[in-house]
Amino acid sequence: xxxxxxxxxxxxxxxxxxxxxxxxxxxxxxxALIGPSGAxxxxxxxxxxRLVEPTSGSIRLEETELTRLSGNAxxxxxxxxAMIFQEYALVDRLTVMENVLSGRLGYxxxxxxxxxxxxxDDIAEAFRLLERVGLPxxxxxxxxxxxxxxxxxxxxxxxxxxxxxxxxxxxxxxxxDPKTSRQIMRLIRELCAERKLAAIINIHDVALxxxxxxxxxxxxxxxxxxxxxxxxxxxxTLTTIYGEExxxxxxxxEEAPSAAASAAPAPATPLTLATGGxx
Length: 279
Ligand SMILES: Nc1ncnc2c1ncn2[C@@H]1O[C@H](COP(=O)(O)OP(=O)(O)OP(=O)(O)O)[C@@H](O)[C@H]1O
Prior knowledge:
Helices cover 35% and strands 21% of the residues. It has one domain: Rossmann fold, CATH 3.40.50. By secondary structure, the protein is α/β, with parallel strands linked by helices. The protein has helices at residues 41-48, 71-79, 96-101, 110-114, 120-132, 148-161, 178-195, 206-212, 235-242, 250-255, 259-263; strands spanning 2-10, 16-25, 30-34, 56-61, 64-65, 81-84, 166-170, 198-202, 215-220, 223-228. The site of adenosine-5'-triphosphate (ATP) has 12 residues, from helix 1.
């Protein structure tokens, strides 16, 4: 449903962020995008919804060539691609319900949204979504009264009320504790399955990516250096993506003495990356 072909991005500063990206994402597939800082993960997902302009190449969402769109046509295409952010991007002074409904801004007219008069169907759907993400009792709370995990659930509900076909997810767990991170990843995974949504999830935590994604794509210096199933990620592949490291042993040697590590459950996946492996 999403096809990137020969996508390149060079920023005006001269930084080459993406080189000849080729990627096809089928409907319903959850893909994790991993790679070191500066590898181009955020640039890639922002090229898809054109928050960043690719320098060259083609990006197709089903029949639509996204790189050629502007104005209303671009706004319409963006409705199909909802974004979930690391820092949630909620409006703090608004209620949870209002934040969720703001996901409909691309659909309702300016005055309606300005006056916050949303159609009854949208309100009913917002109720259903808040229930689905586990926040049925929080709808009247202000967004700034919520925990990080709850804020991300609101961000997920806001994305879904857009009725997207594709989720673009930018480090959804970066500000969350390990347990909440897993709950959020599980929720995203389940919702994608329920709604046949494809997702690209930019994530630093390799263990979480392995556990919750169907497919992992590794970027290094703007190029795809790995594209495979979570079980195919081995120490050699991690070295290709991140550079030299003793992937199998580092967590044990460096973290085992701490209380946090000894309380952690045994890894469910074969490899745990030291930088993001605590669960
Ligand atoms: N607005 C910008 N202007 C100039 N260069 C940029 C800009 N945004 C990103 N870059 C550069 O593009 C490259 C890729 O950055 P990007 O943020 O996409 O990487 P990333 O993999 O998402 O990193 P991180 O994991 O740290 O968020 C880096 O060299 C970065 O310095």
